[in-house]
Design a protein that fits this description.
The chain is α/β, with parallel strands linked by helices. It is globular and about 75 Å long. Helices cover 33% and strands 19% of the residues. It has one domain: CBS-domain (Roll), CATH 3.10.580.10.
């Protein structure tokens, strides 16, 4: 058999063909009894998305849409982790309050103005995650008033963010709705922000 006979030979597609799609957006369904690690986005496997602290709201929103995420890490001008910003931060009452308090327009607001700074963030130690179940993560979401929880581990460089739990992702993998404790902004909150 010659090299040409051994090679790959594309064939004409039939007139009717469909696409294969991943199950559950590439994440397998889980039960509440499964290990918690199954619903964690592992940053050793998945590259985290981040944005500069001087990015405007429109840039933040566009990057979230392009990346298909609802949270971005925020880096300072030196590239160090400064905090995180979520869709709730950019679409909730924070921008209105900031603009009102600082006499600026929405276009002037930067990621650093809306982010939760690193000094106010909490994280679950990876050792706790490894000994927990999905039900423990669901309970933590119900108690913590957040849509994301960070996972931390220690390595030779010090403390590092190892993973992320997203209430949206956990809901998808459980194939059930987990109510977010962060409610959408209502008209009363908008009036408060403008007052």
């Amino acid at each position: 058999m010659t090299q040409a006979e051994k090679g790959i030979h594309p064939k004409q597609l039939p007139n009717v063909v469909s696409l294969t799609t991943p199950d559950s957006d590439g994440k397998k369904l889980v039960s509440e009894d499964d290990p918690a690690i199954k619903v964690m986005t592992d940053l050793k496997v998945v590259k985290p998305y981040s944005i500069r602290s001087n990015a405007c709201i429109e840039s933040i929103n566009n990057k979230m849409i392009a990346c298909g995420v609802r949270m971005l890490f925020v880096n300072d001008p030196m590239g160090d982790l400064a905090g995180l910003v979520t869709t709730s931060d950019i679409n909730g009452k924070k921008p209105l309050q900031f603009a009102n308090q600082n006499g600026c327009s929405r276009d002037d607001i930067k990621a650093s103005d809306l982010m939760t700074p690193i000094s106010r963030l909490e994280a679950i130690p990876i050792k706790e995650v490894l000994s927990s179940h999905v039900s423990d993560i669901v309970s933590a979401f119900e108690q913590c008033r957040r849509n994301h929880m960070l996972v931390m581990e220690s390595n030779k460089e010090g403390k590092v963010i190892r993973g992320i739990f997203s209430i949206t992702q956990v809901s998808k993998q459980l194939d059930t709705y987990i109510p977010s404790s962060i409610e959408d902004t209502n008209f009363e909150e908008l009036n408060e922000a403008l007052a």
